[in-house]
User: Fold this.
Amino acid sequence: MTGQRVRFDDLVERAGVLAATGERRLLGICGAPGSGKSTLARRLVQALGGSAALVEMDGFHLAQRELERLGIAERKGAPDTFDVSGYVDLLARLKSAGPDLVYAPEFRREIEEPVACAVPVSPEVPLVVTEGNYLLLNQDRWKRVRLVLDEAWFLLIDEEVRLRRLVERHVRYGRSREEAEERSTRGSDHVNALAVNASRAGADLVVGEVL
Assistant:
């Protein structure tokens, strides 16, 4: 099963409506690892120009040292390996659209670590796009994310395409192909994808292929 085919221009128009309300709005883009949510979010923000800013959930990964201290480093990327409260608090601060410039963290894949204060969000920007796996997860502290979002989109693409993308991404960042395939099809990424796909009922729009 996949989502509906949607023209990219139609998505830009839909996001533009949110940006034109006169108040700060938050749009969430969710999907399993490899579904293309990061790519779509970046394209969308670029198309909207100064009307939108991108804040990624992955900036709230716990640092590797903390994951090792907690004994959960091997499950990096699972729901409990993020600073959920910090993420929700930042989204709420962005939603309030106060007079100050707000800085968000960013996850750097080349070092596999989050970097603080890497993404400036001006108070004049009317739309903040945030993307990540667990925006619609209906469990524990993650439930609070959906309450802050004004609209949420879920990417549900062909599973073979998603897995191929995911494997290639792992290989690109240093894993062997065997390790990449194990993680993507049977390991932690597979477990996380099942949880993410089960959360799609909370979306306002389920997107498959973007034309």
